Amino acid sequence: MEKQPKPPPLLLLSSQLSFQNRVCEVTLNSAFLSWKEVETRPKRTSGNIYGPLKAGSHYVPVCEIISVQETEEDCPSTDTGKWQKVPQSVAESNQHAFTVSYVERTQKHRWRCSEVTLHCTDRTLCLQWVQAIREQLSLLTIRPKHLLVYINPYGGKHHGKRIYEQKVAPIFSRASISTDVIVTERANHARDHLKTEADLKKYDGVVCVGGDGMFSEIIHGLISRTQCDSGVDQDCSDEPLIPCSLRIGIIPAGSTDCICYATVGSNDPVTSALHIVVGDSQPMDVCSIHHNKTFLRYSVSLLGYGFYGDVLTDSERKRWMGPARYDISGVKTFLSHRYYEGTISFLPADENVGTPRDKLQCRSGCDICRLPSADKQVSKDEESVSDTETKGVWKVIRGKFLAINAACMSCACPRSPKGLSPSAHLADGTADLILVRKCSRFDFLRHLLRHTNKDDQFDHPFVEVYRVRQFRFTPRYEDTDSELDLRETEGSGRKRFFSQICREHPACSCSLAHSSWNCDGEILPHAAIQVRVHCQLIKLFARGIEEQSVFEEPYAFSAI
Ligand SMILES: CCCCCCCCCCCCC/C=C/[C@@H](O)[C@H](CO)NC(=O)CCCCCCCCCCCCCCC
Ligand SMILES: Nc1ncnc2c1ncn2[C@@H]1O[C@H](COP(=O)(O)OP(=O)(O)OP(=O)(O)O)[C@@H](O)[C@H]1O
Ligand SMILES: [Ca+2]
């Protein structure tokens, strides 16, 4: 079917108002608020008494207006004298004003709250403008009105509470968003509250102030609650999960903040607050992890065995160091250079979702994430997921690995601005499985270094990467384990003896020891796991990383 052209925006109001003592033609239509200087000054003859005139237009999309308020002012703002003088009559008559707060884009995907104050000749006109803009805002029903906020006071550098109170709460209050705020008192407080207690019908969304670990608590609470309310058994790995209806906002206040960074493009609390206010919505894939028939956890960012599992295990003992713990443990783990043997089986994704080696990256409005995926069709047809997925052919890889990483999204973060898998998609129903085989320390360092620059970290003979819908991992000594366990109960204690030697002796190449899985910053209790990606199981108050061109559009930066 041919696409119908969009009808032009409806003109709602147009007046001559004054802005910084200059007369402007101000227009409100159903899409934009705009103001453009009207040339009232005399033509320049000689000299530079008036300075250069840069007549320009400002366009603010209605969907990026945060609020409008009548401004209480005795007189209009004074002229700076830099530009032309406004006729006295204009200045004297503009005693009434209103202020519009709106989103302004700055560098590196950051948003700021900007303001324009427009002066009117009489109060009736001023109120007419305020009302017209408010009416347009009230049509934006995707915007949240009431939010449930959880603050982890101990995430990152322990600044969560201050960040929320000083940077976020004022923006919410300006946007007339009401909140119920819970400062957590223990780990899993937020998860348990969401799972069993919170009256979710009251809210339009949940806000998480903290890092990836805190976000993980929130999704565990919300997903479990949704499955429980719908009678879905999370232990049953074949059953499709029910998507959560509430959106989640992340105010970054952690150590890695990779979920925020990879969905917004920055780890800036004000930017995140503004994405919540405008009511953005970004669906996201979630991996479910099972051990045999038991549900273990969900993951949205990194699921890493070997290197990242060992970094996390070591760093948990150094929590007091704050974010620096990861660097210290990273160097220590790098030097220990441990590898692990095991078998990975995986179900590759269809070709239409691209490959991890694509140059194309997931950005706002990503076409790949809009494609109907196998998973989405499943829920529509009420067919069981396993029926559809067994049509694919499982691949099996056995070997010795320094790292096995699964990334449901890019995992971009300040440490690695393009992420572990730069072309992974937020909402395509797949994860990128990265296998780093045993190699020299020097080669592994070259691979790690490429996480921090523009070079391709997969372009090494010891690195393989696959886009998958499901995978399983079995450590090589899984079976032997039970034998060792038996022997241990018989009194030999050999298993403990072996793993101590392997973990504590850096040069040891004995691969009897297991690593642990780092699941979004939490350690999993089992090495043998089964993983399935659930397409678009949750939604965030985000829009994906915006293309740079958005910043160059005329309405963003044009100066009046
Ligand atoms: C030479 C420099 C190489 C730098 C390589 C940096 C790669 C960084 C990749 C970060 C990927 C983060 C993925 C997200 C994981 C989160 O769900 C999780 C919870 O927040 N964070 C971590 O597990 C936190 C994981 C943090 C890992 C930090 C690893 C640092 C390695 C340093 C190795 C240095 C070798 C130097 C040899 C002299
Ligand atoms: N009140 C609390 N006391 C102790 N721990 C808490 C509390 N509230 C939450 N937590 C736990 O703190 C852990 C870390 O929190 P968070 O993710 O916010 O910071 P981080 O680990 O420094 O950052 P990142 O996860 O981004 O690396 C989470 O696993 C969470 O369960
Ligand atoms: Ca994905």
From TrEMBL:
Keywords: Kinase, Transferase. One of its GO terms (cellular component) is membrane. Coiled coil: none annotated. InterPro entries: ATP-NAD_kinase_N (IPR017438), CERK_C (IPR045363), CERK_PH (IPR057465), Diacylglycerol_kinase_cat_dom (IPR001206), Lipid_Phosphate_FormReg (IPR050187), NAD/diacylglycerol_kinase_sf (IPR016064). One of its GO terms (molecular function) is ceramide kinase activity. GO terms for biological process: ceramide metabolic process. Gene3D superfamilies: 2.60.200.40, Probable inorganic polyphosphate/atp-NAD kinase, domain 1. Residues 142-293 form the DAGKc domain. This is Ceramide kinase isoform X2. The lineage of its organism: Eukaryota, Metazoa, Chordata, Craniata, Vertebrata.
